[in-house]
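Weekly structure sync, notes
Attendees: PL (lead), two postdocs, one rotation student
Agenda item 3: pending single-chain targets
PL asked that the sequence for the first pending target be pasted directly into the notes so everyone works from the same version. It is reproduced below exactly as submitted, 174 residues in total.
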Amino acid sequence: MTPEPPTTLAFRAAMARWATGVSVVTAHEDGRDTGLTVNALLSVSLSPPSLLVSLQRDADTLPVLHRSRAFAVSFLGADQRALSERFARAVPSEEKFRGSQFHRGATGAALLDDALAALECRLVSETPVYDHVLVVGEVVRLEEGRDRSPLLFYRGAYAEEDADGRLRPGRRAP
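Predicted structure, written out during the meeting:
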């Protein structure tokens, strides 16, 4: 007997139990910046240093990343929740960058100021999988930022940092 595949809701609920770090992926082309919040990211290789990010097929950052052949990833700290929320909104990229503090990397992509770390990547491959595209990039440059607690996402909410600097699972809004 073949098991029934899980429903979308059941799968989403199960994946919510996996705590993830939060980052912002950016790309730049012809004076235009794009970016979005991402928590589906992993290291692929140490030699050469490379990583994989999973982006929705309809993300406005994807075509810019594809054409420019480069992107950057900024790892967010626990105190950068507002930045994560800004880049997660479904609004034009110009609105996401308005008022955001960033600087340009060697690839031209925006690197968010005060990130835990920022990695600039040369696009290696794009693999469509269902409603996402798996993007692999070779890290060509990195910056280390201030050492502090990471921004984490768990059970549909951001983890909160307490007065002692410990992270506690966040509470999902009702």
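Discussion points:
- The radius of gyration is 17 Å.
- The longest strand covers residues 117-129.
Action: rotation student to compare against the earlier draft before next sync.
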